[in-house]
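Hey, does this match?
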Amino acid sequence: MAISPTSARAAERLLAVEEALERILSGVAPLGAREVPLLDAVGRTLAEDVTADRDVPPFRNSAMDGYAVRGEDVASAPASLRVVGSVAAGGVPDRGIRHGEAMRIMTGAPMPDGADTVVRVEDTDNGESTVTITAATPRGLSVREAGEDLKRGSTVLTTGTTIRAAEVGLLASIGRPKPLVIARPRVAVLSTGDEVVDVGEAPAPGKIRDSNRYSLGAAIWACGCGPWLRPIVRDTPDALRAALRDAMDADAIVTSGGVSVGDHDWVKPVVGELGTIDLWSIAIRPGRPLAFGELRDGTRRIPFFGLPGNPVSALLTFEMFVRPALLKMSGRTRLHRPRVQATLLDTVDKPAHLRFFARGIHDAARGAVTTTGPQGSGILRSMSLANCLIDLPPGTKHVDAGETVTVILTESPEDR
């Protein structure tokens, strides 16, 4: 059945940012859990508590190259000790240490019985049969105790932990080559519009290169998800319908363009045919037209995000609405960027009735922020220069230099 563009009617009211975000977050859920190879777990969310299968380290060992000794023998210097052997990392001592004796020892090697201190080789004459200790050494220096890092049976990492390099090391140290993690969302990315050509093409008159698929794909990658870039979609209901159906293998779908109320804005009516639309207009600038809903593929429900076509609007609405949703789908519990107060160094004009997000450069040392220059929704460079968003509330048309403003730190990880 043909769809009339009038079905893409304007919203009856504009939603506040908080209301829109709450509705979006309530419409998505963490994906299922799966075991993955250890390095593939980086950036993912742990789906189980993990415990140590043994003490780490499993035995007392030396923290550096030197000589294993009894602490009372090196409390003062110089001291001369008889060398009774050596032990390397991966080996075991063939005897213990008695008063007046020393054993050469390498970093990570097990401590011999009787020894409680390691004298670093730099504090000795590096002797082979007899060693002279040239610096007094405190008892217990440079000895790692068994279980100093982890105790057998202790909880090492808890459900919900984001896996970074350090967590990978911990998992390796307790013998977990395939941790159970929340699946990484695969996100289909579509650009719509007859005016759009791919980046490798020379645009003909009336055409522009498509930056949105690539910037949105990069933003998806940056929040730990897998972007799946799809072909450009032309401005017909049939083309969009086919493209969305082809994208339903994804865990979520993000489009840009076609979400307003023009004669060629087909996104909302087609999504309404294939699923449901929950909201589509938010009281912000840039990025007022935004669609959220779901597509249905049998029993599956695929979250759908229809972003504006202007490149700044697309990236900004992704940051404010899509990124938190994808993080939740990834199993994260911290979904929101840090916010700080700063002194505005220039003036900003804005629509009085809308919440305005200016692109800014935050100077933490000075506690100050300035805009990146012209703030038009087509000026992508304003996003490239920015390290923050300046959150200006509705109710005023003009914000003066010197006023205190709220700054969203878009280069910092979520803290709440």
Observations:
- The helical segments are 17-26, 165-173, 212-222, 237-246, 267-274, 311-329, 381-384.
- Residues 1-9 have pLDDT under 50 and may be disordered.
- The domain at 5-31+184-329 is CATH 3.40.980.10 (Molybdenum Cofactor Biosythetic Enzyme; Chain A).
- The first helix runs from residue 17 to 26.
